[in-house]
Design brief:
The complex is a heterodimer of chains A (396) and B (292).
Chain A (H helix, E strand, L loop, with lengths): L4 H10 L7 E4 L2 H15 L4 E5 L12 E4 L2 H11 L3 E2 L9 E2 L3 E5 L10 E10 L4 E7 L6 H7 L4 E5 L8 H10 L4 H20 L2 E11 L5 E3 L3 E4 L8 H4 L9 H8 L3 E4 L4 E5 L2 H13 L6 E4 L6 H12 L6 E8 L4 H15 L6 E7 L2 H10 L4 E4 L2 H12 L1
Parallel strand pairs in A: 14-16, 16-17, 17-18
Antiparallel strand pairs in A: 1-6, 2-3, 2-6, 4-5, 7-8, 7-10, 8-9, 10-11, 10-12, 13-15
Helix pairs in contact in A: 2-3, 5-6, 10-11, 11-12
Chain B lengths: L10 E4 L4 H13 L3 E5 L7 E2 L2 E4 L2 H8 L3 E4 L3 H13 L4 E4 L6 H11 L5 E3 L5 E4 L3 E4 L8 E8 L3 H12 L4 E6 L10 H9 L6 E7 L4 H12 L4 E6 L23 H10 L3 E2 L6 H9 L4
Parallel strand pairs in B: 1-2, 1-5, 2-4, 5-6, 6-7, 10-11, 10-12, 12-13, 13-14
Antiparallel strand pairs in B: 3-4, 8-9, 8-11
The chains are: A alpha+beta (396), B alpha/beta (292).
């Protein structure tokens, strides 16, 4: 689960991570109030107005701007609030901005020059341990750094039996070329950051940039935080930070019905039991000349109610030209699933697109007979290849 | 021969008296698996499905000599259950539970690293050696005895592959569901290695999905050490980057964990890659010279 930048920063701060301070606002008037309060708290004379959406690259789309007066705070926040922000990480329609973060200007002039670094904390799947990944090349697209200058990206793996050690935090600060006060600050920063990652069951932290200010403070200027969805049961405060406005409404609806659904932009819908088989079914749709309109795992109990809900969700997509149902019945009997499909079809009424039902496993023959005798516009199949051939036929 | 489980395996069920545990333990007993008892804290001394219930895994091991455990404990308590089994000396721990927090699995992997045990899963369908032992939730009738080993991250896709193998005139030595989580006990490479060393297994089917580098590791190992024909399939050729596709581990994070990249590495390492999930059985039959 992803959270907003302002929520991520509040969370980091509660673990002692130094951050670029800010106050969130959902109207231009509140943004001005926030700017005034922020100046009282931090002494900042300029403000950065940052669109709060769940996607990176906001600056490139015009979602991050500097305001040098309260009038500009109002003007810029009224431009950003309500806009459809398009970034390299959103769809071409972009995402609607509901809130802005009015943040302090941290690039103020001072004794030393400012420097930007990159830091993330994530799981190294190969070793089964967390690692801190960091680079001297901050404020840039890290994929680009990895491609062009891989020697400037460093890793520090954390031993789970002892946790992050002091020598590791010091090594990170040294590798980033720091000394004196900024070195001490960075060691503290790394410690607090890892404690936060560990404490909130995060699956990803990405702080880009980590800034060394002109007075040698080390602070998180941006922060992307994802939480392990499997741990939300014990992270109630974080679970409450979910913003469903950032999610696809159809996916939210499917989730509430207990269906594992991902919206895609193809023309053939699918309904499958099991995540691996669901991905494989999407692949066979592609091989058969179509494009998958969704990923949908109906789970182990493919009963009439769930099947009906799944059909209704798939049919919300106007681009769907055909639906492939692919169920491998093991413990769940295919004849029951077939009856569920027939009942669901009748409840919905006329389904305007052809449906191919492939049922294999326990009582597959009986299931095929139920589908064939139903009198409905449904093509049946038992072998996966037969289902693929039916898709080719209906798309032709 | 076979790997991990066979007719001599003494199996206990952790989370024995819960609804999942009860249902699947019943199915396993019906299949002929040698289930010797189960564990549910505070229900020790009772009898369930005509088998003894123990308070702890250690008690169960002491009383029954159990060497295999299957875990149906809910996600919040499953990591603890795995560590308890490892501590009690269980040799093969099969964890079915889906939804264990990654942080818990980091601790588990670390804890069991110096224990004499093998963890399979979590978030897996289990392991079956047809005709001998079903230690999992798969439909037993799909898996007929034969000479093909299967390694897979997925549940129903494993059943699909097994069904194709059988329909193509072959059968299965052992099918290992390794699980779809980011951290799992037995990797694709380790499962392939087990089957490569099993004298009864003559061909191997390896089914992976997007995310992580386990299939690439296995492919590189096969290139150096493989002695048997291998068919590979990767689910998720059409999956978008950055989205979790059902399994917590099924997410494209970069350029080298896409289905396309994995299939390319597998092919380069001498594995016969099935482009379509419908041709897994036929590809294996082709390599084995079997005509149905």
């Amino acid at each position: 689960m992803n959270i907003h930048e302002y929520q991520a920063k509040e969370t980091l701060k509660s673990y002692g991570v130094a951050i670029q301070e800010g106050i969130v606002a959902d109207t231009p008037e509140k943004a001005v109030e926030a700017a005034k309060r922020l100046t009282e708290q931090t002494g900042t004379s300029w403000w950065v107005i940052k669109a709060q959406i769940h996607a990176g690259g906001r600056g490139k789309g015009g979602g991050v701007k500097l305001a040098k007066s309260l009038d500009e705070v109002k003007e810029i926040s009224s431009q950003i609030l309500g806009m459809q922000l398009v970034t390299p990480q959103t769809s071409k329609e972009g995402k609607k901005v509901h809130q802005v973060l009015v943040a302090q200007d941290v690039y103020y002039p001072g004794e030393s020059k400012t420097e930007e670094f990159y830091m993330s904390v994530l799981l190294n799947r190969a070793s089964g341990r967390n690692m801190i990944m960091y680079s001297t090349e901050g404020g840039m697209d890290i994929e680009e750094v990895a491609e062009k200058t891989p020697h400037l990206i460093f890793h520090e793996e954390i031993d789970p039996s002892v946790g992050l050690q002091g020598f590791q935090a010091r090594k990170i600060a040294f590798n980033l070329g720091l000394s004196g006060q900024s070195f001490k600050e960075m060691v503290k920063f790394v410690y607090a950051l890892y404690a936060a990652y560990d404490g909130i069951d995060a699956s990803l932290f990405e702080i880009n940039p980590v800034l060394k200010t002109s007075d040698d403070k080390i602070i998180a200027v941006d922060s992307k935080v994802s939480i392990d969805a499997n741990a939300l049961y014990r992270q109630k405060d974080l679970a409450a930070m979910r913003d469903v406005r950032e999610e696809d409404p159809t996916e939210v609806e499917a989730g509430e019905a207990g269906l594992n659904f991902v919206n895609l932009d193809g023309n053939v819908g699918c309904m499958v039991n099991g995540a691996g088989l669901a991905m494989a079914t999407m692949d066979i749709i592609k091989i058969s000349g179509g494009n998958p309109a969704n990923f949908l795992d109906v789970g182990g109990t493919a009963n009439a109610e769930r099947v009906e809900k799944a059909f209704r969700i798939i049919l919300k997509d106007q681009n769907v030209e055909a639906i492939l149902v692919n169920i491998f019945g093991g413990i769940v009997r295919c004849d029951r699933v077939a009856q569920g499909i027939v009942d669901a079809y009748k409840n919905i009424g006329d389904i305007p697109v052809p449906i191919i039902v492939r049922l294999q496993g326990t009582n597959a023959e009986e299931a095929k007979k139920i589908i064939d005798d139903s009198g409905l516009k449904v093509h049946s199949a038992i072998l996966l290849q037969e289902a693929a051939d039916r898709i080719k036929e209906v798309l032709a | 021969m076979s790997v991990l489980v066979n007719k001599n395996s003494k199996v206990i069920v952790q989370g024995f008296t819960g609804s999942e545990g009860t249902f699947h333990a019943g199915q396993m007993i019906e299949y002929g698996t040698n289930v010797v008892g189960g564990v549910t804290p505070n229900k020790g001394g009772q009898t369930h499905l005509d088998k003894p219930v123990f308070n702890t895994v250690a008690d169960a091991v002491k009383e029954t000599g159990a060497d295999v455990s299957i875990i149906f404990v809910p996600p919040a308590f499953a990591a603890d259950a795995i560590m308890e089994a490892a501590e009690a000396g269980i040799k093969v721990i099969i964890c079915i539970t889906e939804g264990i927090p990654t942080k818990d699995m980091i601790a588990v992997k670390n804890y069991i690293s110096d224990k004499d045990c093998r963890l399979v899963g979590p978030n897996c369908p289990g392991v079956i050696t047809p005709g001998e032992a079903k230690v999992g939730i798969m439909p037993g009738f799909v898996f007929k005895k034969g000479k093909i080993g299967i390694v897979s991250k997925s549940g129903t896709l494993t059943y699909e592959a097994a069904d194709q193998v059988v329909k193509a005139g072959m059968g299965i030595t052992t099918a290992i569901g390794i699980g779809g989580d980011p951290i799992i006990g037995t990797t694709t490479k380790e499962a392939v290695e087990l089957l490569m060393n099993d004298p009864e297994t003559e061909g191997i089917i390896m089914i992976g999905e997007i995310g992580g580098n386990m299939e690439a590791d296995a492919a590189n190992w096969i290139k150096e050490n493989g002695t048997k024909p291998v068919v590979g399939f990767i689910a998720g050729q059409t999956a978008p980057a950055g989205r979790t596709m059902g399994h917590a581990g099924a997410i494209v994070g970069g350029a080298d964990d896409t289905a396309e990249a994995k299939m390319k590495i597998m092919a380069a390492c001498g594995i016969t890659v099935a482009e379509s999930p419908a041709e897994i059985g036929a590809k294996m039959a082709g390599l084995m010279g079997v005509t149905a």
